[in-house]
Each structure stands twice: as C-alpha cells, then as structure tokens.
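ok so i was messing around last nite and threw this chain in just to see what happens. nothing serious, just curious
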Amino acid sequence: MQSDDKPTNGQPTNGQYNLSFPELFNQLPTEPSADQHGAGRLAWLRAAWKQSWKEGGFLYERWEEVGQARHVSWYEIATWIKATLLFGGLSLIVLMLDAAGDIASATLKGLSDVPATGAGDGSGLWGMVDHPIRVFLADQAAHLPVAPAALYAFWQLTGLVGLVGGFFGNAGARIAWLLFGIGSLAMIWSATPAGGRAAATGLAALMWALASILALRGLTLRPIVHNHPPQFQPQFSPALHIHATLPAPAPVGDDFGDEPDNVHPLQR
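result:
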C-alpha cells in the first residue's frame, strides 16, 4: 500500500495520502486523439481501469479504505464511506415511513368502508359482542355530525392500538385499552335486548379479560421496592477513653513529717 507524508487538506486520512481529482487524471494514460477509432478509446479505458486498481491507484485506495472500515472507529472511517452510509440510512427511513403511511391509509380506508350496521343478525359469539356496538354507534351517529362507519372504524382502531401497544408495555396504550373495554361493555349493555343483556355483557367481559392477558402483559399490582444502600455509610467506632492521673511515687527516705497521725511504722 502506498503511503507518504503528503497531507490532504492539511491532514492525512488514516495515514494515507488521498489523491485529488487533478492528480488522479494525471496518473491516467494519455487519452487518444479524436481522429483515432473506437478501438483506441476502448483500449484507453481498459488501461485507465487497470491503472486505477494498481497499488496507489484511486480504486485501489478506496477498496483499502472499505476494508479498514471494519476495524476502526466511526471517526477514523473515510468521509465518503460515512456519507454513503448516512445517505443510505436516511433513504431507508424515508422508504419505511412512506410504506407505513400507505399501509395505515389503506387500513383506515378499509375500516371506514365497512358499514356500521352490516353485522347481519348478530349470530355467533363475536356477533353477540359486535352487533350491539354497531347498533349503538349507528343510533348515536344520527345525532352527531359524523358517519356511523367512521365511529365504528375509530372504535376498532382504538382497540387495535391498545392491544398492540399494551403488549409492548406502553402505559398510554394500556390506559386506552382499559377505556376501550369499559366503553365496549357499556355499549353492549345499552344496545342488547333486556332478556340477554346480562349474558351478553358478562361474556363480553370475559372475552375482554382474555385479550387483556396480552394487552396487560407483565403488569403487576405489587409495589416495586428498590433497596439501594446509600452511597456513603458513616462508620461509627465507639470507644471509651479514661484518663487517670497517678501521683508520682515518693523518693526513698522521704521524711517530711507530713504523714497523718494514725500512720505509724511497723515495729517488732
């Protein structure tokens, strides 16, 4: 690999000297004149291609930079590689957002096209829950400036967002899921005939509870107590210090006559 001390814009890149465009063209073979045939121009292109792949050539150096990018940090990668990666990542994000927008738009349009009262006679377990909600929303939409299909689509979207978002632990989605269930039970109780109102509402509550296993996954009512010891714990070392002052012993033969009267030397 060719390396020298010539800087690029004042600083070398990865210890290598990057050729500028004028220097790159100076390394290419002499371009054939205009009066030569196409074969001569093709031979020139072939020679330029081989020259760029030789050690120290433009394409050779770029390929070396690609190989080194796997073993160096982000700040040491060549600028053109970082720009390419950033441009590709932004393009991928834009494509994903565009596709997600199209999917959401098609889903909302499909939900809105479903007639609010097209649930037949409400037969079946799901029809027992879905049909009263459709009837309730259709009756309420007659007093509101909105179509029944729009209300039904919004109800479905709320339940879907609450279920999926609650599964991933989003607090707002779980609140929406709880309100969705309570509102659904209220609509079923209101629109179901009196003879089967209690059974329909009870079965709907059981179905909502089963779905809540996914929507409220990991939720616990036990308080979470974090026992973290303090970072600084003072050390107490109790000690008892007693200071006693002892009189100095009297010198031998001391007879100052200061002994009390009741003290007498021992005599045989």
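not much to say yet. Confidence is low (pLDDT under 50) at residues 1-16.
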